[in-house]
Each structure stands twice: as structure tokens, then as C-alpha cells.
Design brief:
The complex is a heterodimer of chains A (178) and B (310). Chain A contains three helices and eight strands. Chain A is α/β, with parallel strands linked by helices. In chain B, 37% of the residues lie in helices and 14% in strands. In chain B, the strands form two sheets. Chain B has a five-stranded parallel beta sheet. Classes of the chains: A alpha/beta (178), B alpha/beta (310).
């Protein structure tokens, strides 16, 4: 580990945070009826799978999980700068009338969440959209607030927060890079 | 991370394997948009795309227009009969006049091979080739690659037979460029009058004496259209004879591997290049090609917008 990296959460810390978020999702929605999880690619999609497993253990019921890619909805696409590769959106169920829990790894400016909400609305009209994030690092540029937060980490704009995943897409640790 | 650095897409000859991989990956993921209730994303909002078609086209022009609209771009269609070309305006003058209206992309089809290189030198916006003479048809080449990859999950090591009017086919040229760069083995067959004089220049291909030789054990058979409006009458005695030697029917299709793919860029001259039984049969992927065309063109329009100024 280099000197400019600080581990904010280790594997067990992440697991505890996700378990707590799972309980909060169940409490807020009074169970899993009509609840679906949609993870934002790529980190959020991996965490949505983890949350679904955690909810299944707690509640004994499966929650549908989907993944959304927001590349085509970004507000910073410019001409003559290479456009990002487009990822796959996989939502194998209707969002009509569903309580969607949008999942991301790090909440920062809020622009990714705005893009994800635009993308979700093109797939149907959910009853509501809730937001679950593992880390909220602040610096919002849009009026967006998470409903479920694993850990609040006040950061400077010069710092970077990253959730590290294994080759099997398991969350390993959260690091702060100075 | 892969980056697409081209501002224009004029020929697959100009693209690397990595460029094509990126376009195919993007197209693959864009297909999801085409199956939604709301088939639209805001990606190219505010961009203007001019479809400048100097040759007749249903499939390609409609496909490009749908692709642009699904990405929220504004499109303008110009066809030969409504163009000032009928009044004698040169391509360069048309291009400069169009450029004064600040388009972001010009998608052009032109009867003259290489017209797009000329256009690209004249304009500062992106140029996408929708077919130029007997040179290339890159969007058709890419959608063929995508359709084949869908079926086999790969392109390398496949035997692909291309049969028909190789000399005048821009589809054949793009397919050869795309397939050979991606590792497929391409076998060509066609009447000697329809073979290019220096066929080796097309790429690393095997030229077969007969159609049977080309399609023997093939994974994919791509049949080309006889361009009746251009060469049909001068390069072959009659359609019946062509069909006898170079037409695909259930009998000779058995020479290919079981379940081999049959493809055709359309429009099909039924009973000439292939029988209706084959065209509508279970091995035909013709409509899948058309379906993939929209996604491939969305990927092309998306990535040229991010290409660097050359």
C-alpha cells in the first residue's frame, strides 16, 4: 500500500455496511414487495447483486436485480473527445409501479445519478426511486441526496474515492487516494 | 480503455481490428435501446445529421435515419431528385453549402468510388460512408460482422464464402476487409466476368474456381446481389444461367456445414442469387442483418462524434 492511499473500509466493513443498508431498505419499504434493485454500471451493479443476496438472507425472499449503463445519458459528451465505450443495460422486468432502489458505489457530484434517473424513466414509470450508495463523498452539483448510505466520507476535490472489486466482482475495500 | 479516434468512417480498410471491436461492442450494447418501448436516448441531442443519398436506397437510408433519431440527433434527408446536383452543382459546392448550415455529420451514398475522401477533405464535420460506387460499404460490413458474431460468438477461424459479383460489390470489399482483419478465412466465387482483374489486391482471400468449392464446409455463405441496373445485362448471358452456376439453393447449401448461415445484403433477386426456399429458410439471417444495421449505425454515429479532428 502506497502512502497516499488510506483504506476507509475493508471487506468486513463493506459487508457490515451492506447488511445495514439491506435492513434499512426492508424497513423503509416494509418488506420486498414491488422492490427492485438497479445497479449503475459498473461498481453499482456489483453492489446491487451483493445487496440482493443480503436481503435474501435477511428476508428469505428474492429481489429482482438489474443493471443500467448511463454512458448514453451523460451530460458531458463533447465533440472531438473520444466517446466512452457503451456498457450493457440489463433490466429483465418492467419498472412500472415498482419501488426502484438505485445502487451506486460512490456518490459525488450527483450527475451520474441524474443520468441514471433519466435512463430509468425511459424504461417505465416506477412508483418511486430510492438511492443507495456505499460511500457519500460530498461535493454535490445537483440537488440529489441518498436514502441509504454505507458511510459518509467528507473529502476534498483533490482526493479520489474508489471501491476495489475482485476479479469475481466482490467488493474488497474502499480506498481514499490523496 | 479503447478509444475511437477517427472523425470519419469511409472504409473498413482504414480501421484497425481494435476500432472494429469497439464499434461492434458498442452496437451490441445499443441493441437494448431498440427493444424498449421508448426507443430513444439523448446522446446526440442537438447534433444535426444530413443524409445525402445520391443513389437510391431504402434499407440503408432508413436505417441511418432511425439510428440518428434513436440517438436524438436531428436528421435531414437529401435525395438525388431533390438535390441541386440535378442542376449541375458539383459535390464540392454541395458540400460547402451544406457545411454552411453547420451539420455535425454527413452520411453520404455516392455512385463514384472514393467520393467520400474528396468530401472529407472539403468539410470540417464528420463524414460517414453509406456506400460509394464499387469501393466500400462499411456499415454493411460491420453489420455483417455483428450478425456472424452473434451466431458463432467469434469471427476468427470461420470459413466465409462470398459468392457473386465480387468486382462491382462494395459489400464484398467491406466484408473482405472486416472479416480478414478479424481472423476469418474468406473464399470467393463468381463468374470470371465478375471477378476483379487483380483479385489478390482485395486482401488475404482464396479465389475458388466453382461455387461448390467456395461453399464446401463453409460456416457462412454471403450471397451478393446481381446489380441488374448496372452490370446485369453485360456480364452474364442470362439470369437463368447465372442461377444455375452461382445461385444458392437447398441442394448446394448442403455442401456447407450443417446449420451454416446464409446472408445477403439485399434487395434479393429471388430465383437468381438464391431461391426463395433458402431466402426464407431457417438458415437465412437476412432480416437479422437488417435489424443489426440500426444498432451498428448508431454505434458509428456515436463514435464519429467523438473522433479527433484530422
Amino acid at each position: 500500500m502506497t502512502e497516499n492511499l488510506t483504506v476507509l473500509l475493508d471487506e468486513s466493513g463493506i459487508k457490515r455496511a451492506l447488511t445495514r443498508i439491506s435492513h434499512e431498505i426492508l424497513e423503509r419499504n416494509k418488506g420486498v414487495e414491488d422492490v427492485v434493485l438497479i445497479g449503475i454500471r459498473s461498481g453499482g451493479a456489483f453492489l446491487a447483486e451483493e445487496l440482493a443476496q443480503s436481503i435474501a438472507v435477511i428476508e428469505g425472499a428474492a429481489v429482482p436485480v438489474g443493471a443500467i449503463d448511463i454512458t448514453l445519458y451523460r451530460d458531458d459528451i463533447k465533440s472531438h473527445t473520444p466517446h466512452l465505450p457503451v456498457g450493457k443495460t440489463e433490466i429483465g422486468f418492467s419498472l412500472q409501479g415498482k419501488k426502484v432502489v438505485l445502487v451506486d458505489d460512490v456518490l459525488f457530484t450527483g450527475r451520474t445519478i441524474r443520468a441514471a434517473m433519466d435512463a430509468l424513466m425511459d424504461h417505465g414509470r416506477p412508483e418511486c426511486i430510492q438511492l443507495a450508495v456505499l460511500i457519500d463523498r460530498g461535493h454535490r452539483e445537483l440537488p440529489i441526496r441518498a436514502d441509504f448510505v454505507g458511510r459518509n466520507v467528507p473529502t476534498s476535490l483533490k482526493e479520489n474515492v474508489q471501491v476495489v472489486f475482485s476479479a469475481q466482482n466482490q467488493p474488497l475495500e474502499v480506498v481514499l487516494e490523496k | 480503455m479503447a478509444e475511437f479516434k477517427h472523425r470519419n468512417i469511409i472504409a473498413l480498410r482504414d480501421l484497425t481490428r481494435e476500432d472494429m471491436e469497439l464499434l461492434l461492442a458498442t452496437a451490441e450494447n445499443m441493441r437494448e435501446i431498440n427493444s424498449r418501448d421508448i426507443k430513444k436516448v439523448p446522446t446526440l441531442r442537438g447534433k444535426t445529421i444530413i443524409n445525402l443519398f445520391y443513389e437510391a436506397s431504402t434499407r440503408t437510408r432508413t436505417s441511418f435515419e432511425i439510428a440518428a433519431k434513436r440517438l436524438s440527433a436531428d436528421t435531414v434527408n437529401i435525395s438525388p431528385s431533390t438535390s441541386s446536383a440535378t442542376k449541375g452543382e458539383t459535390l464540392a459546392d454541395t458540400a460547402l453549402n451544406l457545411l454552411a448550415m453547420k451539420p455535425d455529420i454527413i452520411v453520404m451514398r455516392h455512385a463514384v468510388s472514393g467520393a467520400h475522401y474528396h468530401l472529407a477533405k472539403k468539410v470540417s464535420c464528420s463524414v460517414v460512408n453509406a456506400g460509394d460506387g464499387a469501393h466500400e460499404h462499411p456499415s454493411q460490413g460491420l453489420l455483417d460482422l455483428l450478425t456472424i458474431r452473434d451466431r458463432f460468438g467469434r469471427l476468427d477461424g470461420l470459413k466465409v464464402a462470398i459468392v457473386g459479383d465480387i468486382a462491382h460489390s462494395r459489400v464484398a470489399r467491406s466484408d473482405i476487409q472486416g472479416l480478414t482483419k478479424m481472423g476469418s478465412h474468406v473464399f470467393l466465387a463468381g463468374p470470371p466476368t465478375m471477378m476483379p482483374p487483380v483479385v489478390e489486391k482485395l486482401g488475404n482471400v482464396t479465389v475458388c474456381a466453382t461455387m461448390r468449392e467456395a461453399i464446401q464446409d463453409a460456416d457462412v455463405v454471403i450471397m451478393l446481389r446481381i446489380q441488374q441496373e448496372r452490370q446485369g445485362k453485360t456480364l452474364m448471358p442470362n439470369a437463368r444461367e447465372y442461377s444455375r452456376y452461382f445461385g444458392l439453393n437447398p441442394e448446394n447449401l448442403k455442401l456447407a456445414k450443417p446449420g451454416a448461415m446464409v446472408m445477403h445484403p439485399g434487395p434479393i433477386n429471388r430465383g437468381v442469387e438464391m431461391s426463395s426456399y433458402v431466402a426464407d429458410g431457417s438458415q437465412s439471417h437476412v432480416l437479422k442483418q437488417v435489424e443489426n444495421g440500426v444498432a451498428v449505425r448508431m454505434a458509428m454515429l456515436y463514435h464519429v462524434c467523438g473522433g479527433e479532428l484530422e
